[in-house]
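Methods — Computational structure assignment.
A single polypeptide chain was analysed. Its primary sequence is given first, followed by the predicted tertiary structure written as structure tokens.
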Amino acid sequence: MSQALWTGEEIAQATGARIVGASPADVTGVSIDSRTVKPGELYVAIKGDVHDGHDFVAAALKAGAAAALVSEEKLASLGDAAPLFVVTDALKELELLGRAARARSNAKIVAVTGSAGKTGVKEALATVLGKQAETHFSVASFNNHWGVPLTLARMNASAVFGVFEIGMNHVGEITPLTAMVRPHVAIVTTIAPVHLAFFESIDQIADAKGEIFSGLEPDGAAIINGDIAQTERLIAHARRAGARIVTFGDAKTADARLLRADLHADGSEVEAVIFGEAMSYSLKNPGKHVALNSLAVLAAVRAVGADVAAAARALGEVPPPSGRGARETLAINGRSFTLIDESYNANPASMRAALENLGRVKPGASGRRIAVMGDMLELGDGAKIFHRELSDAVAANRIDLVFACGPMMHELWDALPQEKRGAYAADSGALQPIVLDAITAGDVVTVKGSLGSRMGPVVKAIRARFAASGAANKG
């Protein structure tokens, strides 16, 4: 970074902090994790669900943090730790620092939400805009009440574009986050039965996602999936916010319209019309939903005044986000098999998309299509039905074997014909060794489930077991 992110004086002014010790002249970054804080960064001691960041202030300073932002009520427990910015509440003042970053920025800002695909769209925008000018974006899925202000606080004043992911699982969560971000463009990728344990209906989910438009800057653009049942509901939210409406999808009336998508196991060839301009481009990430979301990406590029043709070309360089479809070829007994990592999260729509993608991959000689599936969580009263109905997708996509875990996935297990039953276990820990022993050369193995069903460790175990047999080729 060519210049400091913040000066100590700017931090104190933005947060209203009093300073204990010598204020740092410059701060090069902002961190909430003492394990990864870099020399020169500001460490913000927020209280999480499991750990209190104040317990790690000394470790952060020892690691080279320029200073720590701490809550007044915890000051006495910190001994002689310094330098400190002492505030009423560290998380609240992180929000103030984020707001200060937004206030000083001249960047064109895009905010992305949706029941599925928001991280992929965010990553694609970060890549294609980043090739045209300095672009700041959310790392990982920093999309909640601490992730959004942290991402804002990390935004350099020199950024030309900013891309923010905004998530929720309750009504009212997006409103304060979009008010901080103040986007010029807001995207809703899709609406699906996600977090239904906290909502009365899918329409209520759409209303919650539609909150993103409330933070739009004057004459901002609302980019909305035009192919879903909740399109008009979302448009109504956008109109109440005074937004310009932009739609994307298959419909002939869409501003960003998909003409054709040749779907392959490892990507797609797309033909589209973006505001009347025809273009063709390639995608590395497979799936119809990815092709449709690429339209939202290009619509957003146009809305912020960047080069749409250049962005379309750059889409071919965007890899699948971690845990969302990345493919690897791993060695086994002198041959190989394919692992598809879909372990980051799951809902009925994304689970079906993962099964469709698995169905497009041709196994090697004597190989099988194998789905390793964990529970989809927070689906409310309809959870059993959503899981049971996946049996249709298993059949339609020629999945040979299913390995399932979790109480809800037992519903799918019961609905499967005997020949497609690989194994069932109570949890991913018990399923893991069974899957490892079942994999043979030529197989294609997809692993997917909600975060809480802990399918990520299954992926790590597969990599650990088979990477030792030979080099893994990531593709």
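Note: The first strand starts at residue 6 and ends at 7.
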